Amino acid sequence: MKTIKIILAGPRGRMGREAVELIHRTEHFELVACLDRVNEGKKLSEIGGFPPIDAPIYHNPVACFQNVEADVLIDLTTPEIGKLHTKLALEYGVRPVVGTTGFTDEELKELAELAEEKKTGVIIAPNFAVGAILMMKFAQMAAKHLEDVEIIELHHDRKLDAPSGTALKTAELISQTRTPKRQGHPEEVQQLAGARGAETKDGIRIHSVRLPGLVAHQEVIFGGEGQSLSIKHDSYNRASFMSGIKLSVETIMTLDVLVYGLENIIE
Ligand code: NAP
């Protein structure tokens, strides 16, 4: 298999460190540079806690894309910087695989248009864990038969966006099979603002929990007469996301449009 040359943005982050290990252990992947806001000018191998990879570290993304020949950008940073990296990568013909969450619908639309214009693939996935994708698909199936549903998502307390991209994506998939319905009593009153969680335009309630010790967890609860159905997925560590990133890096080499969601590339 041809070697895929990768630029990684956010190597010191919790996801980034796992991604460095993934690239290091994958024979046909090569880490050719990192984008980081510290350690500019150094090599990754000169920083403690990383494998012996001599990839240069850049702070300035333009300089990085101009100087380094790469096939793929993996971005695991923050929404603001991730969007900038993704746009620049497309300008320089580097295919972005974006794990960073928190993009708005307008930002996704803008990136999709740019991908189309540049005829360069982009994969943006709010959740790279295969089990989470199955949870979303099973929830979408269940919603055909059980229309009453609420979503509870739980994450570590350093997460910046709420609700999670996975919860929003789950609600979007459910809405494709469920007749819109406002969940709860029509006259219910919230004694404390936010008690009933956030509400999508189709009436699905999403509740976000943020606590230290958690990684990424979600439960989709359906209610029916005399019964309930819970579909739950837990990511216990960030290694759970790496098989999805590997698949995305391999798949993006054959794409020329934006794909949002890992469910669109797994069989
Ligand atoms: P994290 O530990 O906070 O890591 C984020 C990294 O981005 C940090 O190293 C941070 O550096 C770096 N960064 C910030 N600004 C930067 C810049 N200008 N240039 C380069 N790097 C910059 O967060 P995480 O848990 O690894 O998560 C990273 C992203 O992935 C988040 O958006 C998270 O929601 C998302 N995520 C996605 C999935 C998925 O399956 N798609 C799963 C888990 C997490 P500093 O240390 O200097 O701030």
Describe this structure in words.
30% of the residues lie in helices and 24% in strands. With 267 residues, the chain is an alpha/beta fold. The strands form two sheets. It has a seven-stranded parallel beta sheet, sandwiched between helices. Strand 5 (95-98), helix 4 (105-118) and strand 6 (122-124) form a beta-alpha-beta unit. Helix 3 packs parallel to helix 4 (105-118) and helix 5 packs parallel to helix 6. It is elongated, with a radius of gyration of 20 Å. The mean pLDDT is 96. Bound molecules: NADP nicotinamide-adenine-dinucleotide phosphate. NADP nicotinamide-adenine-dinucleotide phosphate is lined by residues 9-10, 12-16, 35-38, 76-78, 81, 99-101, 125-128, 158-159, 216, 241.
Notable characteristics:
single chain, 267 residues, alpha/beta, seven-stranded parallel beta sheet, five-stranded mixed beta sheet, binds NADP nicotinamide-adenine-dinucleotide phosphate
Give the SSE map.
Blueprint: E1 4-9, H1 14-25, E2 29-35, E3 57-58, H2 61-67, E4 72-75, H3 79-91, E5 95-98, H4 105-118, E6 122-124, H5 130-142, E7 148-155, H6 165-175, E8 198-199, E9 205-210, E10 216-224, E11 227-235, H7 242-252, E12 258-260
Helix pairs in contact: 3-4, 5-6
Strand order of the largest sheet: 3-2-1-4-5-6-12
What's the average pLDDT? 96
Helix content: 25-40%
What small molecules does the structure contain?
NADP nicotinamide-adenine-dinucleotide phosphate
Number of helices: 7
Low-confidence stretches: none
Cα Rg = 20 Å
**Major sheet attributes:** 7 strands, parallel
Which sequence of SSEs, written as H and E, runs from N to C?
EHEEHEHEHEHEHEEEEHE
Shape: elongated
Counting helices, strands and paired strands, the structural category is alpha/beta
Number of strands: 12
Strand percentage lies at 15-25%
Distance separating the two termini: 21 Å
